[in-house]
Write a structure and sequence with these properties.
By secondary structure, the protein is α/β, with parallel strands linked by helices. It has two domains: about 5-105 and about 220-230, Rossmann fold (3-Layer(aba) Sandwich); about 105-215, Rossmann fold (3-Layer(aba) Sandwich). The protein is built from ten helices and eight strands. The strands form two sheets. A four-stranded parallel β-sheet has the order 2-1-3-4, sandwiched between helices. The chain has a four-stranded parallel β-sheet with strand order 6-5-7-8, sandwiched between helices. Strand 3 (about 80), helix 4 and strand 4 (about 100) form a beta-alpha-beta unit. Helix 1 packs across helix 10 (about 215-230), helix 3 (about 55-75) packs across helix 4 and helix 5 (about 105-115) crosses helix 10 (about 215-230). The radius of gyration is 17 Å and the shape is globular. The termini are close together. The mean pLDDT is about 95.
Length: about 230
């Protein structure tokens, strides 16, 4: 099997989710504990938060590429960036790293197409909702992407950074997200992309009757499938 390299720490909650999903999915599928070897590099998240808000994406890309190269040198056969927002510089990072990286956007697009949906709402940080990288990735697959209005985007972003990245789960924030989802449904959304790896801490399928696309689990599942292919 291939060794998995996870660039984590953005946030700790999502990094733990990736590890847990890969290992437990393997055991549920095969009945033993022979899951792939996993290397995790946890970054200083504050640096990335600061770079995001200053628009210093080149600095973030450089730091991620260096961290992923360390994982490669340590034995990883391929890598994952365990967060949606930082996929804004995915292509730049991939060009600088000497191992393949799996895209969270591509993993999400594949799942939506399998379900036959053509229009989805996108929730995430303001960077994920405002920048084109996630929407373009889905739209290239023929999927229409709807994002909340600016005021709702700001509220979603505040919950992500002020609560979810700290491990805080508030029922009032869940109600807020469900109200925003209803507004997206009214505009034509057939499903909702949880385009931030922390949002599933707040929203689970039982909370919403629209299909929810948990990007972290889709990404982690794709990593397990890729790792199970023999290393060359």
């Amino acid at each position: 099997m291939k060794k998995i390299g996870i660039l984590g720490g953005m946030s700790p909650e999502s990094t733990a989710l990736y590890y847990e999903h890969i290992t437990r999915t393997y055991t549920a599928r095969f009945g033993d504990y022979g899951y792939p070897e996993i290397l995790i590099y946890s970054v200083n998240f504050q640096k990335f938060v600061d770079w995001q808000h200053k628009g210093q994406w080149n600095e973030a890309a450089r730091e991620m590429a260096e961290a992923l190269e360390r994982l490669h040198v340590a034995g990883a056969d391929f890598g994952l960036i365990a967060t949606n927002t930082m996929h804004i510089v995915f292509e730049e990072v991939q060009r600088a790293v000497h191992m393949p990286l799996l895209s969270i956007v591509q993993a999400t697009a594949e799942a939506i197409l399998v379900a036959g949906l053509r229009s989805v709402g996108l929730l995430g940080t303001v960077f994920t909702m405002n920048e084109r990288f996630f929407r373009d990735g889905l739209e290239r697959s023929g999927i229409t992407v709807l994002v909340p209005e600016p005021g709702d985007q700001q509220r979603v972003n505040e919950v992500i950074y002020g609560e979810l990245c700290r491990g805080e789960i508030r029922p009032s924030s869940r109600r807020l997200f469900l109200e925003i989802i209803e507004r997206l449904r009214d505009r034509g959304a057939e499903g909702i992309v949880l385009g931030c790896t922390e949002i599933p801490l707040l929203l689970q399928p039982q909370h919403c009757d629209l299909p929810l696309y948990n990007t972290a689990l889709l990404h982690a599942g794709k990593a397990l499938d890729f790792a199970l292919q023999p290393a060359r």
